[in-house]
Design a protein that fits this description.
536 residues, alpha+beta, 5 domains, eight-stranded mixed sheet
Length: 536
């Protein structure tokens, strides 16, 4: 290819992308793009704010100098600028809410006036979680601190919680969100640690927090009754409680590339909504009312299970889709995903760029970009349901591959097979566990029927995960060069996946044009048929 031809091809590609953005681009999608670009740059938000101001100044000057600029271009530029400014606010918030240093004085506690943090008092933001080593991880919204010296103590107290702080403790009772606790004899280092016996409840949670704990406790008891020995897995999938789940079982999910199946996400939320809609159609028989009831139960499930990033992303997408349907303004899939990212940045800025959130958004973007293309190709060789399952797994790994390579330096191709095989087993497991758990609250005898079925499904799932974990994974090591090269290769493959169908369509269109130029009668007949179709 000559240099002039390559230049024309590159210029035509840029013009084509520009026309695509201007014709089909949505302001909320540009705002989300600016948000994620700013979050990827990192820092304290100064760089993002400076870039947003520069972009805003460029937009003002460019639209003022060019009379032919339309309102749509101005709106898109303003949306991109808003997304960059929003990322600056998120990073600034995270910098202000950062963890407190472990010690406020030199590490030598025998210093003359050395101070160290001895106690925390605060409100639990989320339920206490169990780590891989069976310790408790507490996220406190600190309201009081106590410093200890050689022969004196200093107490700092605020009227309301001022900053979050993570604290690890030994195995102890599960504490629900909203409980006021006091951790004494805190030891600092790389992290704060307090023994389980040194953590006391100062006061019970509020009314809604107690109601949530009561409902979640009854539901967890019903799940345990209905699932039998598969109770830990059922609680992890339906409530996000992994306290009793074996470490080896969790590692098996990770080695098979199916760790995302344990995280509460849109799949779990869709099962809740489907069950509510199935029951609601038998009672109400009005689609609009059933849809709103299932939407309310989705938010109820998020309230019970806890607002994790993946679950919040799912319920925000559901809310955006429902709002567009109510306002008679249907939104595209990418616009709904962009609404979810902006809402997550506004409502949970501390977790919008966490690893689980990035994985969730990248997997959903991969499904939207590649799922239909893989499905159209695989349906020629596989049955429809199998092709759809394989295409979903391929699209998800295409979306998360770059994140996995940059973060861990590994890629698990076996997750395509294990995820495809495990998905229907997990779906059946969750349906039975959810139905049995709800019924077991009132009829405990249902466990004699559901427990053997769930235990059998857990055995099948373990076999699938063990097979996936036995397959080799791609390890690029810790070298940044190899990781960047791997990401470039993944981006090239993704571009080819998108470019090949377009090139096939373009070649077929050229053949039709050439055939029409060679045969005027055929061209006139095709125009006549087109006129008849438009007339009908």
């Amino acid at each position: 290819m000559s240099e002039n031809r390559r230049y024309r091809f590159g210029r035509s590609a840029v013009v084509r992308v520009q026309r695509l953005v201007l014709s089909r681009g949505e302001p909320i999608s540009l705002a989300a793009l600016g948000l994620w670009i700013g979050l990827a740059c990192g820092g304290g938000g100064v760089l993002q704010l400076s870039f947003a101001m520069a972009l805003g100044a460029f937009a003002v000057s460019w639209t003022g100098l060019r009379a032919g600029v339309g309102k749509r271009e101005r709106l898109l530029l303003c949306a991109l600028c808003t997304g960059c400014a929003l990322s600056a606010g998120v990073l600034r918030f995270q910098a202000q809410q950062g963890a407190l240093p472990c010690e406020a004085a030199p590490r030598d506690e025998g210093a003359a006036h050395g101070l160290r943090i001895d106690a925390f008092e605060g409100l639990l933001g989320i339920d206490s979680q169990t780590t891989a080593r069976k310790n408790r991880r507490l996220e406190l919204k600190v309201q009081a601190l106590e410093f200890a010296g050689l022969d004196f103590r200093v107490r700092c107290e605020w009227e309301r919680p001022v900053f979050p702080q993570f604290l690890l403790s030994g195995a102890g009772p599960r504490l629900s969100a909203g409980t006021m606790v006091r951790a004494e004899s805190v030891r600092g280092g790389d992290f704060f640690w307090a023994d389980a016996r040194d953590i006391r409840r100062l006061e019970d949670a509020g009314l809604f927090a107690r109601l949530r704990a009561l409902l979640a406790g009854h539901f967890a008891q019903g799940i345990s009754t209905a699932a039998g020995r598969a109770g830990p897995l059922a609680q992890a999938l339906l409530l996000g409680v992994r306290d009793e789940l074996d470490t080896e079982f969790k590692e098996l999910f990770q080695e098979a590339g199916c760790a995302h199946l344990l995280s509460l996400s849109g799949q779990h939320l869709s099962i809740i909504c489907a069950l509510v809609a199935l029951v609601g159609r038998r009672i109400a028989r009005r689609e609009k009312r059933v849809r709103r009831v299932s939407f309310g139960f989705a938010w109820l499930f998020v309230w019970l299970a806890g607002p994790g990033p993946s679950l919040l992303r799912s319920v925000f997408m559901l809310s955006a889709a429902e709002a567009g349907r109510v306002l008679d303004r249907p939104q595209s899939s990418f616009a709904i995903l962009s609404h979810a990212s902006v809402l997550l940045a506004l409502c949970a800025p501390s977790s919008v760029n966490s690893l689980s959130s990035v994985y969730s958004f990248s997997a959903m973007a991969g499904l939207m970009l590649f799922s239909s293309r893989f499905s159209g190709f695989l349906k020629q060789y596989l049955p429809g349901s199998v092709a759809q399952a394989f295409s979903a797994s391929l699209a998800a790994i295409c979306g998360t591959a770059m994140v996995s390579v940059l973060t861990f330096g590994t890629l698990i191709p076996a997750s395509i097979l294990s995820g495809t095989a495990a998905a229907p087993v997990m779906l059946a497991f969750m349906w039975i566990a959810l139905t049995g758990g709800l019924l077991a609250v009132f009829v405990p005898m249902i466990g004699y029927i559901t427990a053997p079925a769930l235990e059998l499904l857990q055995t099948v799932l373990t076999s699938i995960l063990a097979f996936g974990a036995s397959l080799p994974a791609i390890d690029l090591g810790a070298s940044a060069v190899w990781r960047v090269a791997g990401c470039a290769l993944i981006a090239l493959i993704a571009a080819l996946i998108y470019a090949v169908p377009w090139l096939q369509w373009r070649n077929s269109r050229r053949r039709v044009e050439i055939l029409g130029a060679c045969n005027p009668r055929l061209r006139a007949r095709s125009r006549y048929l087109l006129f008849e179709l438009q007339k009908e």
